[in-house]
Amino acid sequence: MGEDVSAVDRSDPDGAAGSEGGAERRRGPWRSAAGALGVCFAASLLLLSLLGAAGTPYAVEAPGPVLDVLGEGRDGEPLISVEGRETYPTEGSLDLLTVSTSGGPGRDVVLAQVVSAWLDPVEEALPVGRVFAPDQTREDVDEARQAQMSSSQQAATAAALRELDVPVDVRLRVSGAAGEELPEGLERGDVITAVDGRPAPTVDDLRAGLQEVEPGAEVRLGLERDGADLEVAVTTSRGDDGRTVLGVLLDPEVQVPFEVDISIDDVGGPSAGMVFALGLVDLLTPGSLTGGLHVAGTGTVSAEGAVGPIGGIRQKLVGASRAGAEVFLAPAVNCDEVVGHVPDGMRVVAVSSLEQARSALEELADGGGQELPGCREALAAAG
């Protein structure tokens, strides 16, 4: 019996057992393929989940908070206040603009954020190395930004008072390192007075002296340290723009005959300098500098009043537009990034100095300003 059944099972494909076995064999490849697809799908989901939770080597920039320097901060106190000198009422708004940066040291962004930024016409995903220096820690970043903000406030105060012909005394004090550590020979708190024997009472004088040598060359700096005068040899380095730099953060100490306080929290960097200076000029002069207009602006400012470049200007244009700004003051050196990205209904005026920015606002406040240069005109004039 056993042999007969065994013979049927192996040799009769039409028998019950053989028929069922044949159907099973015919469905087998399909079931295997479906199973493989299911495993691949599950694995893909798992991989995407892991990638979505893992950090990426990118930083994402987006429009940040907008603050009116003619108004009040979160604590209800004026952002700019003056004691010991007459001030005047203001009208309109004068907005400083910020960029919100996600990612960088200690704060990785995940793949989903990077992909979202790639698809967003406003946000921008950049390699971390383009935003932060190598080996920077989060503490380094925060310290540098606060030092830059403090320095920009001091420079803005000096620039505004010089614009108003108020005597000021500025000392260039070293507040920290632009990179990992200070160049050999320098210490925090040093006051720089000369470069290679030439007096350097201003940042512009210091920069001009440094450009006399190639990056990496040595310069001799005149210093004041702990009340004593001395001279030290310091090796320069190459800045991001190719210029010769010292690789230090400077905190200009401005001595003025009255008290100026610029109070702002949770914002770092130097890019609000021009707007701080304009706000101070407005407070210290009769009438409204903006003429009631809603103005926004960005740009560094030196103690001598030169307006310099900033980062994230496209995000700042969007932030200004969302806040309702009618006029946007842009550093002329950033104009190549502005053209083609100006929001509808906003007028951009290109400026290279605090004097130009002030004059532009006065013209606009009087209902004029039709001939003021925008970024297209500024680029054409630059050649």
Automatic annotation (TrEMBL):
Record keywords: Hydrolase, Membrane, Protease, Serine protease, Transmembrane, Transmembrane helix
Coiled coil: none
Entry-linked InterPro entries: Lon_proteolytic, Lon_Prtase, PDZ, PDZ_sf, Ribosomal_Su5_D2-typ_SF, Ribsml_uS5_D2-typ_fold_subgr
Active site, per annotation: 271, 316
BP-aspect Gene Ontology terms: protein catabolic process; proteolysis
One Pfam family, short name: PDZ_2
Taxonomy, superkingdom: Bacteria
Membrane spanning residue stretches: 33-54
Reactions catalysed according to its record: Hydrolysis of proteins in presence of ATP
Chain residue ranges for the region called Disordered: 1-28
EC number of the protein: 3.4.21.53
Domain Lon proteolytic, chain residue ranges per copy: 266-364
Alphabetized GO MF terms: ATP binding; ATP-dependent peptidase activity; serine-type endopeptidase activity
PANTHER family: ATP DEPENDENT LON PROTEASE FAMILY MEMBER
Family designation: Belongs to the peptidase S16 family.
Protein name stated in the entry: endopeptidase La
Organism: Pseudokineococcus marinus
